[in-house]
Amino acid sequence: MTTPLENREIRIWRRPEALGLVWAFRAGAAFLIALPIAGAVGATGISRFPGGDARLFESGAMWLVETVRIGRQSIGSAAQTGAFAWLVFAVAALVPLAALLIAMSQRDRLGWGQWFGRAMAHLPAFVLLSGLCLVAQAFVLGLFFLLSTGIGAAFSESLDDRNLWFFRATVGVLCGVLAAVFGIAHDLTRAARVRHDETLRRALAIALGTLRRKFLLSLLSWIAPVASSIAVVVAAAAIVSWLRVEQPGALRWVGALLVHQIAIFSLVVFRASWLAAALRLVGPGATTQSSDAA
Q1: Is residue 124 part of a domain?
Q2: Total count of domains within the chain
Q3: Is residue 86 part of a domain?
Q4: pLDDT in tens, 209-254
Q5: Is residue 131 in a domain?
Q6: Given a cut of 70, is residue 59 above it in pLDDT?
Q7: What is the span of the domain harbouring residue 46?
Q8: What element of type H or E holds 74?
Q9: Cα gap 46→226, rounded to integer Å
Q10: Are 209 and 198 in contact (CB under 8 A)?
C-alpha cells in the first residue's frame, strides 16, 4: 500500500529516474522508427552527392522527387515498417508515462518491479482513453474541414476574400480549442486514475468535474508547457540549421545530436510539468466534489 502525496508535494524532480525513463524511451523509439527510412533513403545514393541529404530539402523538391522515384519500393516498405513501429511504440509509451504519473503522485519509493507492475496495470485503461481521445479529436478535425470548406464555399459568393479568411480562421481557432479541451480532459482522467486508483468511469467523472470547475486554470496550466515545447522545437531546428550538418566535420554531427537530445529531454520536462499540474488539479478536493455531485 502506497501513500499519496499532498498537492504541494507533487514535483516533477522528486523522481528524476522517471524523467530519465521517459526520455530514454522516446529517444530510443525515435531512433528505431527513423532507422529503416533513413537506411532506405541512404541506399539511393543521395549521400554521395555534394551536400548529402540536405539536397532533399532544396526548393523545387527535384532531388526529393527523384530520390523517391529511385527508391520507391524500399522507401515504401520502410515507411510501412516505420508506421507499424510507431503504432507499437505509441502504445508502449503509455507504460513509462504511467510510471511517471505514479512517481510524481506517491510518497513511497517503489522498486522497479513494483513500479513496472503498477504502470502495466494502468495500460488497458490508458489505451482505451487514448483511442477515445483520438476519435474525438478526429471528429473535431472533420468538423473543421466541413465548416471551412463546405459552409465556407456556400458563403464564398457573399463574402470577400478577407471575410472568408476570417471565417475560416475563427472556425480553426474554435476547433483547435475544442481539440485541446479533449486532450486536457484526457490527461486529467489519466491523472485521476493514477492518483486515486479509481475505475476508469470514476476517473473520467473526476476529470470532467475538475475541468468544469477549474476550466481556466486547467487551460492555462496546459498552455504554458505547450508554448514552451513549441519554442524548444523551433530553437532546436534553428540551431541545427545553423550547424549545417551536411558539411564535413564530426563536431557538427555531434553538436546536432546533443541539440536533439536536449530538446527531447526538455519536451519530457515540460510534459511532466503539465502532468504534475493535472495531478494537483484532480487532488482530494476534486474527488469529494465529484462524489457530492453524483
Answers
A1: no
A2: 1
A3: yes
A4: 999 999 999 999 999 999 999 999 999 989 988 887 666 667 877 8
A5: no
A6: no
A7: 15-92
A8: helix 72-92
A9: 36
A10: no
